[in-house]
Design brief:
heterodimer, A: alpha/beta, Rossmann fold, 6-stranded mixed β-sheet, 26% strand, B: mainly alpha, ABC transporter involved in vitamin B12 uptake, BtuC, 78% helix, globular
């Protein structure tokens, strides 16, 4: 069991509107979990609590059997890689230097990464077919490429689990698909993967488990196929969604009705 | 591919060696130049003689001028320039804001109050420096305490708190100037506020050096972690950084550097803002390369500016006048060059 979340409670602002209310879920090693929910439900809050970035008001999170609030940032970063939403940094670093930052959990505070660390980052970029970007400026590459570079940064942390905060936001359709493919591939390679997404179709594409954070802050968790029914989807998104089997695609898709 | 990277690493080393040699060249040049010129050969001769306790056949007056006046002044300009640029680059990195300058947490305004009080109490030069140093550190301590009292550890709170403290300090300074004797004290306070190396005291410089040296060494050793801090609090934490500790260490060291510099020369504007930008243009944003670079070019810049003030005017002109005249258009040019990258 890599993650055990038990009775998690969180509200914004403190003590007022509950975005997570006695939310519980669990994840075995090597599983994939898709966190769904309407705007304003606590998807990202849940993810950030699980990454140890936010302190919940109540309840507990265990990472590999240890309570996460007793662990140092460095220890958590050794187990969990975090891929934030695409953003523009204030300074212009080279792609290889951005990936190198993933070696921070293994680097002392008066030290800097070694030649071996750089070689590892270069190999990782090569294995993701991104080697041609290594010496480019991170500000000059496209949003899709930045997302891939940050994934590379999470991989060089050598974590057991990788958390993605809306990895498909701000990306065009092709890049969204490529990112999901990469996410799926991470699962095949043995990582536990958690992603938040606005698109229920992504959960269907990825398979595995899904967790739906409702407006009331409760969580419904289970196998994607089992819990993502037309009825549930209609009630979370308040829209007349349909699940259809598409023969040509070989899968069930979630589509919205005509306007 | 790894061999290309090796080149990149050694490029920092090579470029920084070049900047260091340029700095040495400037130091020698500025030791020679002045209203009374000393030849470079004699200059080196005297320096070597002093260093190895040799007897030499140089003129006693040259030695007195070089070792007693010019050498401390040149060293002070280089060290103050390096200290202000280094702390400017560090502050910009940890607050992920290229528009921040070393005094935005209130160091300079606090130091001004300290110095002005000492001038008001008719203290000696040594006490003015001590008061300035304490005032600078005290102001930053206050700035850091306000967000703590509000139980917030966000960067924005710290920046706003710096504005509050600086604002309050400049009011207090206004009051001190108002009650100061306009003939002597007010003039001294104003002169101090504009900064000058005309009355540098070698003893004070030596007194500040160990603490500032340690602070600079700590910052240079942490340079890679400043890259991580520049990603923002949350992302840095997700990479395993102990943000509170790292940021605290950076603030303490950068504040010691700035306060030390200000108490030697008075407040000097622009350099801590402009030089880090110039450095990024020369060597890139990676703080591993950038921090040594800004020390060298910052030292060089202030040395050249101070030597200019030494030569041009009949009376000693305060140095902030020139750093402003040079700094402002230079900054405009840098922004013009980088306009695509700023968003």
């Amino acid at each position: 069991m890599i993650y055990e979340v038990d009775n998690l409670t969180f509200s914004y602002p403190k003590g007022e509107r509950k975005v997570l209310d006695h939310a519980s879920l669990c994840l075995e090693e090597g599983e994939i979990l898709c966190i769904l929910g309407p705007n304003g439900a606590g998807k990202t809050t849940l993810l950030n609590c699980m990454a140890g970035l936010l302190l919940p008001e109540g309840g507990s999170i265990c990472l590999c059997g240890r309570p996460i609030n007793s662990m140092k940032a460095r220890e958590i970063a050794g187990i969990v890689g975090y891929v934030p939403q695409i953003h523009t940094p204030a300074f212009d670093y080279k792609v290889l230097d951005v990936v190198l930052m993933g070696r921070a959990p293994k680097t002392g505070i008066f030290a800097r990464p070694s030649k071996e660390d750089e070689a590892l980052c270069m190999r990782t970029l090569e294995s993701m077919n991104l080697a041609h970007l290594a010496h480019r400026s991170y500000l000059d590459i496209s949003g899709g490429e930045r997302q891939q570079v940050i994934i590379a940064r999470a991989i060089v942390q050598k974590p057991k689990a990788i958390l993605f905060d809306e990895p498909t936001a701000h990306l065009d359709y092709g890049n969204q698909h490529r990112v999901l493919k990469r996410v799926r591939q991470m699962k095949e390679e043995g990582y536990s993967v958690i992603i938040t997404t606005h698109n229920p179709d992504h959960a269907l594409l990825l398979g595995g488990k899904a967790a739906i954070v409702g407006k009331d802050g409760h969580i419904i968790q289970g196998e994607s196929k089992a819990i993502l029914t037309e009825e549930t989807l209609r009630s979370i998104y308040e829209t007349d969604l349909k699940l259809l089997w598409v023969e040509e695609a070989g899968r069930t898709v979630c589509i919205a009705p005509g306007l | 591919m790894t061999s290309r990277r090796k080149k990149a690493v050694s490029r920092y080393g090579m470029m920084n060696t070049v900047f260091f040699l340029l700095l040495l060249f400037c130091v020698l040049g500025c030791l020679c130049i002045g209203k009374y010129t000393i030849s470079p050969g004699e200059c080196l001769h005297i320096l070597a003689g002093k260093l190895f306790h040799l007897q030499g056949d140089w003129q006693a007056m040259d030695e007195k001028l070089l070792m007693g006046v010019r050498f401390p002044r040149v060293m002070a300009a280089v060290l103050v320039g390096a200290a202000l640029s280094l702390s400017g680059a560090v502050y910009q990195g940890i607050f992920k804001n290229p528009l921040v300058s070393p005094d935005f947490l209130g160091v300079s305004s606090g130091a001004c109050i300290g110095a002005a009080m000492a001038i008001l109490l008719s203290c000696s030069a040594g006490w003015i420096q001590l008061f300035a140093f304490a005032g600078g550190i005290g102001a930053v301590a206050l700035t850091v305490l306000i967000p703590k009292a509000m139980r917030s550890d966000s960067n924005i709170m710290l920046v706003l708190s710096g504005i509050i403290v600086s604002g309050a300090m400049s009011s207090i300074l206004g009051f001190i100037k108002y009650i100061a004797d306009p003939q002597t004290q007010l003039a001294a306070i104003t002169y101090w506020q504009l900064g000058s190396f005309a009355y540098v005291d070698a003893q004070a410089l030596l007194g500040i050096l160990p603490l500032s040296g340690i602070a600079a060494a700590v910052l240079l050793a942490m340079s890679w972690w400043i890259n991580i801090l520049s990603l923002g609090e949350q992302e840095a934490r997700s990479l395993g950084a102990n943000v509170g500790l790292l940021r605290g260490l950076c603030i303490v060291c950068a504040t010691i550097l700035t306060a030390g510099a200000v108490c030697i020369s008075g407040t000097i504007g622009w350099i801590g803002l402009v030089i880090p930008h110039f450095g990024r243009m020369l060597i890139g944003s990676d703080n591993r390369g950038l921090l040594p670079t800004v020390c060298f070019i910052g030292g060089m810049f202030l040395l050249i500016v101070d030597t200019t003030t030494r030569i041009i005017g009949p009376a000693e002109m305060p140095i902030s006048i020139l750093t402003g005249i040079i700094g402002a258009p230079f900054y405009a040019w840098l922004l013009y060059r980088q306009r695509m990258n700023l968003r």
